[in-house]
Amino acid sequence: MALPSFDAEYSAQLYNFAGKDVPWLIKKWADATPDKTFLIWEPKSGVEKTWTYSEFWAEINEVACGLIDKGVNKGDKLLIHSDNSPEMMIAWYASAVIGSVAVTTNTRCIGDELTYFAEHSEAVGCITQPQFIKELAANAKSIPWFVVTDDNSGDEAPADQLDHGCESWSALYGKGETAPERPAEPMLPVGIQFTSGTTSRPKAVVHTHANALWGGMCGSQNLGIDSSDTYLCFLPCFHVNAQSWTFWTMTWAGGTVVLQPKFSSSRFWEVSVKHKCTRASMIPFCFKAIGAQKIPEHFYKSWSTGVKLHNVENYWKVPTFATWGMTETVTHATRSILPLDCPEMNIGMPSPGYEFAVINPDTGKYCAPGENGDLYIRGVRGVHIFLEYYKNPEAMEKSFTEDGWFATGDTVRLGEDGYMYFADRDKDILKVGGENVSARQIEEFIGETLGMGVLEEHAVVAQKHDMLDEVPVVFAIKSAWTQLSEEEITDKIMTACNENLADFKRPRAIYFVEELPRATLDKVAKNKLREMADEIADKEATPA
């Protein structure tokens, strides 16, 4: 018998997670280990709360009934604009039960960015917190209804924030106990996250139920996580790290998540020891924040740090997990092998399920070990990598080659030792305190704000920063035709950025220069500007 011609994508979509989706996974653990603790909420203030798997399954079903009562149907988009909180995660999983798509957005975004999130996603409703409802109501006017939690991630909301006139979180309860069952559809979209790119607007990355299951399976296998593990989560759940690396991983393994509103240096060890946490995702800021604290006896088996950091291991006695991933890759696309040692600053080697190519941008050929090149990855869309950029065919065309390779925008090299290493990052992407920032978005916003004839040219680059690693700064050439002074231009830019951009996107300084350094084909040499920015930072940090 002759087999049909092999189609890897069709095969993976059909068989990898046949009959399974996110609700199937939660229900599996609720049935198998009903009394196992799934979620522990550790607010800065307020009351700690715990959900077992059976309690969580029951609550997301009840909230799903409440969302259905508000008109949310399969395929609809539900905006969730919230800092880390139990309500945020309950709403996300309740949406998965319905078959709708949870759109989690960065709470540091304001103004026109909120308008874009709401309109681009076509959200039919929004779950948010008292601290954000005024800004949302003023800007996300396309959304027909808002449901507002009673507090701000455990902190009591002031009276002016509670005077919003919208329904409270409790309105989603009492509309039924069990949501209608639906057949599992692994390739059905389950979530959207907006990610910064080199275009002015963030791209809406669509994840499927199969993506979430793959992220959980791959993440738990890469780290050797099982149901005995407890993951401390304080990074924002509107990003892929907390959502996939933590929640999807732990739901696959049947483990426990300890959720905090945000990172707390004063409570890090207290909470870690109290709940016997074994895993956490750490960014450089965390190490700086807890560096001077006494190290207690703890239970950590690993910290996911991105790169291998022997100084961290030697000081805190915790193995570091070297890995690279992005919203589009769903989970760790590279991994180190715990507990084996590996070279300093490597980002691991390709995880099972991903194909890698490092390409010389000038020749279009594969790079030899030790040679820097552009990183491309390949996997099945909707399983190993994201399904699509929602309503953005132009970005899809630019991001994928004809044979399915995804251009990551990162520059790497394969070492002679077989491990991957970062080289120079994409010039238009900054990493500000763990947040991806598009330099081009800021540049275009400044241009739109000032209009013609104020600046002859301007460029945004990263400047090193003690706590945030890097921050955006602007180098500008003042136009000979403007009547505005440098101080007036600076004030106009900063005011507009403060009113319309998330705080991590706002330039920290504007430096006026006579000319901008040039590279090949007369392009602005941003590497030279970054050097200039760092030299300025060094001078400003040096006492007179």
Number of helices: 16
What is the structural class?
alpha/beta
> What's the story with the biggest beta sheet?
8 strands, mixed
What's the pLDDT, averaged over the residues?
Answer: 93
The coarse overall form would be: globular
Enumerate the strands of the largest sheet in spatial order, edge to edge or round the barrel. 9-6-5-3-4-10-11-21
- Can you count the beta strands? 28
State the distance separating the first and last CA atoms. Answer: 83 Å
Low-confidence stretches: none
Helical amount among residues, as a percent range?
A: 25-40%
- Binned strand content: 15-25%
User: For the CA atoms, what is the radius of gyration?
Assistant: 24 Å
Features:
alpha/beta, about 550 residues, 7-stranded mixed β-sheet, 16 helices
What secondary-structure arrangement, pairings included, does this model have?
Layout: H1 8-15, H2 22-32, E1 37-41, E2 49-52, H3 53-69, E3 77-81, H4 86-98, E4 101-104, H5 112-121, E5 125-128, H6 130-139, E6 146-148, E7 151-152, E8 155-156, H7 159-162, E9 167-168, E10 189-195, E11 203-208, H8 209-223, E12 230-233, H9 240-253, E13 256-259, H10 268-274, E14 279-281, H11 284-290, E15 302-306, H12 310-316, E16 320-322, E17 334-335, E18 349-350, E19 355-359, E20 373-378, E21 388-389, H13 393-399, E22 406-414, E23 420-422, E24 429-432, E25 435-438, H14 439-450, E26 455-465, E27 469-478, H15 486-500, E28 510-512, H16 526-541
Parallel strand pairs: 1-13, 3-4, 3-5, 4-10, 5-6, 6-9, 12-13, 12-14, 14-15, 15-16, 27-28
Antiparallel strand pairs: 1-2, 7-8, 10-11, 11-21, 17-18, 19-20, 20-22, 22-23, 24-25, 26-27
Helix pairs in contact: 2-3, 3-4, 8-9, 14-15
